[in-house]
Design goal:
Elements: E1 4-8, H1 13-24, E2 28-33, E3 45-49, H2 58-64, E4 70-73, H3 88-116, E5 119-124, H4 128-131, H5 136-156, E6 161-168, H6 181-189, H7 199-211, E7 221-224
Parallel strand pairs: 1-2, 1-4, 2-3, 4-5, 5-6, 6-7
Helix pairs in contact: 1-7, 3-5
The structure holds NADP nicotinamide-adenine-dinucleotide phosphate (NAP).
NADP nicotinamide-adenine-dinucleotide phosphate (NAP) is lined by residues 8-9, 11-15, 32-35, 51-53, 74-77, 97, 124, 126, 168, 170-171, 173-176.
């Protein structure tokens, strides 16, 4: 039977690169995003338009989908707004998309994985969750996602589920459009190679954790930061 991966935000940036890797590996790929059109056509690729901020509707969404073997919680948003002038509705949207939706998806998707005796889940967090961030809610949400990864591994690891996270530094995608140029320059100066990560570099790590990484790597977060946070 063809394995099935659900990738949130699998239509753009890092998520799109991840969708391509799973398609190339023979997976059936379901993408969840607000967009109603995909940039590419593939017989194994399905777009399910859905706004992930509708947390209450996530259980019904998962019930509609075929059995999920791998969940990639990738969709996320950063507004890059100052903490003392952050509209409450923006903060609420960010926290819903970046932390409540992944947690709800893990809860719903893991039910079937437990019944079948296993599955893999990968969460796209950020270095922001480790070292802080000018968008305070972004940093908080990503720290929460790293912590949720560990908490869920404690709950689900004994039931055959492998759940890990990645914490990339800045990656060349549309998300960086809101970062001012001087900050971009400073970030590049603080890494070994003087450049941002590519979407492909992060996607390859998500793919590995979703498919082939050793089972003993569970409940961890892999740094992808090129020296920005060596430890
Ligand atoms: N780029 C970076 O520097 C960087 C660094 C570290 C971590 N990350 C993390 O990597 C992940 C992907 O980021 P990216 O850089 O690839 O960003 P991106 O190119 O802006 O893509 C964001 C994705 O999320 C989807 N999305 C946004 N709001 C949504 C909603 N309400 N419901 C459903 N889907 C929604 C978007 O699709 P639609 O617009 O069609 O909804 C899009 O596919 C994020 O979690 C981000 O925090 C990024």
């Amino acid at each position: 039977m063809t394995p099935h991966v659900l990738i949130t935000g699998g239509n753009k940036g890092i998520g799109l690169e991840c969708s391509r890797l799973f398609l190339a590996a023979g997976y059936r790929v379901t993408v969840i995003a607000r967009s109603t059109e995909l940039v590419e056509d593939h017989p194994n690729l399905t777009l399910h338009p859905f706004d992930l901020c509708q947390i209450d509707q996530i259980p019904a969404l998962i019930k509609q989908l075929p059995t999920i073997d791998v969940l990639i919680n990738n969709a996320g948003v950063m507004f890059s707004l100052p903490y003392d002038n952050y509209p409450a509705d923006k903060a609420a949207t960010l926290m819903k998309l970046n932390i409540e939706a992944p947690v709800a998806l893990i809860r719903e998707v893991s039910r079937g994985m437990i019944q079948r005796g296993g599955g893999r889940i990968v969460n796209n967090a950020s270095i922001a969750g480790q070292i802080g961030h000018p968008d305070i809610w972004y940093g908080i949400s990503k720290a929460g996602l790293i912590n949720a990864t560990k908490s869920f591994a404690k709950q689900l690891g004994g039931q055959g589920i492998i759940i890990n996270a990645v914490a990339p530094g800045p990656v060349e995608t549309d998300m960086l459009e809101v970062i001012p140029e001087p900050r971009k320059k400073a970030i590049k100066a603080a890494v070994y190679s003087g450049r941002f990560a590519t979407a492909s570099e992060v996607a390859r790590t998500l793919f590995w954790l979703g498919t082939d990484s050793p089972d003993y790597i569970n409940g961890t977060c892999i740094d992808i930061n090129n020296g920005a946070f060596p430890r």
